[in-house]
Specification:
Elements: E1 7-11, H1 16-27, E2 33-36, H2 44-49, E3 58-61, E4 64-67, H3 69-79, H4 92-118, H5 122-146, H6 160-166, H7 169-179, H8 190-200, H9 212-228
Parallel strand pairs: 1-2
Antiparallel strand pairs: 1-3, 3-4
Helix pairs in contact: 1-3, 4-5, 4-6, 7-9
Length: 231
């Protein structure tokens, strides 16, 4: 394992964004300490380390703190550049395309996934599911271009866009469980279907993925809390 220089990740187990940081560290074989945060009663360390957003994940490294999951992944890739393959593509155009789609994931697609769990009424839920499926269809097409026939968006190894999308796979399993429909389907999205299996079973990923049943219970609690809160 690479030298850690006192690396910590402040996180919360259900968070797909925390998974990004942990997967990137695993890909680079970096030793780190994972610190589980109680987001109902945030620690002084979290509030001090991320005073602007007060959110996880936060990466602590050598006395410095880095926030926002995609920025953390890029930081890890640059700091441990000599460890394992690069997470971001080396080609400038491919790097730009990966960043574009990762931004789409966070700015648009994530909101559709979240809405499938929290939407009130069947029509709102159907609209959210349709938007989530639209995103998956776009990823199916983009995978064909970026992977060049290899197992991952990043080629032979997991890359930036794999991490950006793949961290949501367990939540997709939960949504499929609640909606009783398949979002990643061998018939509709055959490339993504194979990719999802390869990503989830990768040595850098499989040990940090939360349990689907535990996540489903958390999802139910999240929905109940959201419906009780005025919005």
């Amino acid at each position: 394992m690479a030298e850690s220089s006192d690396v910590k990740v402040l996180g919360s187990w259900p968070s797909p964004f925390v998974l990004r940081a942990r997967i990137a560290l695993h890909l680079k074989s970096v030793n780190y300490e994972y610190v589980e945060e109680n987001l109902e009663s945030k620690s002084e360390l979290l509030l001090k380390s991320n005073p602007v957003h007060k959110k996880v994940p936060v990466l602590l490294h050598g006395g410095n703190s880095v926030s926002e999951s995609l920025i953390i992944v890029q930081y890890i890739d640059e700091v441990w550049s000599s460890s394992a393959p690069s997470i971001l593509p080396s080609d400038p155009y491919e790097r730009a395309i990966s960043r574009f789609w990762a931004a789409y994931v966070d700015d648009k697609w994530y909101n559709a996934l979240r809405a499938t769990l929290l939407a009130e009424g069947e029509e709102a839920k159907k609209a959210a599911l349709a938007q989530a499926e639209e995103g998956l269809a776009l990823f199916e097409e983009e995978y064909g271009k970026l992977s060049k026939g290899k197992p991952f968006f990043g080629g032979d190894e997991i890359g930036y866009l794999d991490i950006a999308i793949g961290c949501f796979l367990v939540w997709i399993n939960v949504i499929e469980k609640f909606s009783e429909m398949k979002l990643i389907d061998e018939a509709k999205t055959p490339r993504l279907f194979q990719w999802a299996d390869g990503f989830s079973s990768h040595v850098a990923v499989k040990d940090v993925l939360p349990d689907v049943e535990a996540l489903a219970q958390f999802g139910l609690q999240l929905r109940a809390k959201f419906l009780k809160t005025p919005h």
